């Protein structure tokens, strides 16, 4: 009689590559989250600073009075969207690039390439953590604006969320580009500072975009945070954000992200 095989399939077959990759990514995210929460400076600038600035401005009596030149709106009403933009700018330009360039400069990414943990998992974890923290900061600014200063919630919520998401994507893409072009942490800090203040101006930190001269508004709204300011202001007043502003945000996010991906080096 022909011999019959008594071999049986393993009780626990090896995990599929995709399953292992997902498990590794979750482990990296968990580890990076613990490290992220141990950085009080980063948490302050992302979570506290935008709302703190909004609170300081809201305590100025004239900012809580209706302004005919702003269509009857109050200055503080315009600064709530600015606080959201400031959270995205701070995260993308000041905080995240320093972390990623620090990992590269210390050789962490190079050493990771010899382990089952791929550098891309670390990059994805950093983007997820910083993006999530920015969302919390935006929600905090909206809550304080509403409860402390009576700022109305966005009249067009779906358009407001869409504009905020595109803004965050643009900010994170810009942060990845700064990291890609900066060989060291110090270089990333210098480049971030050089970009940070112009972006704050286009976002309306020193004066709402809506109060700028018409010619300056036309120029500013071609930049990501100027377009974001206009889109958020329109959604706040109950209108769907202008498609041109949303398109500017989407194009900047795609272009910056593409260039960052092409120029990014793990070592």
UniProtKB/TrEMBL annotation:
Q: Name all ABC transmembrane type-2 domain ranges.
A: 41-267
Chief location bin: membrane
Key words, A-Z = Antibiotic resistance, Cell membrane, Membrane, Transmembrane, Transmembrane helix, Transport
**Record-annotated membrane-spanning stretches:** 43-63, 78-100, 121-145, 157-180, 187-206, 242-260
Membrane topology, as annotated, equals: Multi-pass membrane protein
Does the keyword Transmembrane helix feature in the UniProt annotation?
yes
Its localization reads: Cell membrane; Membrane
The family database entries (InterPro entries) matched by this protein are listed as:
ABC-2_transporter, ABC2_TM, ABC2_TM_bact-type, ABC_2_transport
PANTHER family noted in UniProt: DOXORUBICIN RESISTANCE ABC TRANSPORTER PERMEASE PROTEIN DRRC-RELATED, TRANSPORT PERMEASE PROTEIN
Which family is annotated?
A: Belongs to the ABC-2 integral membrane protein family.
> What is the recorded name of this protein?
Transport permease protein
Q: What species is given as this protein's source?
A: Streptomyces mooreae
């Amino acid at each position: 009689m022909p011999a019959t095989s008594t071999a049986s399939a393993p009780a626990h077959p090896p995990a599929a590559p995709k399953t292992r990759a997902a498990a590794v990514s979750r482990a990296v995210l968990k580890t990076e989250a613990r490290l992220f929460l141990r950085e009080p400076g980063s948490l302050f600038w992302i979570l506290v600073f935008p709302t703190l600035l909004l609170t300081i401005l809201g305590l100025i009596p004239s900012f809580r009075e209706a302004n005919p030149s702003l269509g009857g709106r109050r200055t503080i009403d315009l600064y709530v969207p600015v606080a959201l933009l400031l959270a995205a700018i701070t995260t993308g330009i000041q905080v995240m690039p320093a972390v990623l360039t620090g990992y590269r400069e210390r050789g962490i990414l190079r050493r990771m390439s010899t382990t089952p943990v791929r550098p891309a998992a670390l990059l994805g974890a950093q983007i997820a953590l910083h993006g999530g923290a920015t969302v919390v900061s935006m929600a905090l600014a909206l809550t304080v604006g509403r409860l402390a200063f009576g700022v109305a919630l966005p009249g067009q919520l779906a358009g407001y969320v869409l504009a905020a998401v595109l803004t965050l994507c643009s900010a994170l893409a810009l942060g990845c580009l700064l990291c890609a072009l900066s060989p060291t942490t110090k270089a990333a800090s210098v480049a971030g500072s050089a970009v940070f203040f112009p972006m704050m101006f286009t976002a309306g930190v020193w004066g709402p975009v809506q109060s700028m001269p018409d010619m300056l508004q036309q120029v500013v709204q071609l930049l990501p945070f100027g377009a974001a300011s206009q889109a958020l202001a329109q959604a706040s007043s109950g209108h769907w954000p202008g498609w041109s502003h949303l398109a500017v945000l989407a194009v900047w996010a795609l272009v910056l992200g593409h260039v960052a991906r092409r120029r990014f080096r793990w070592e």
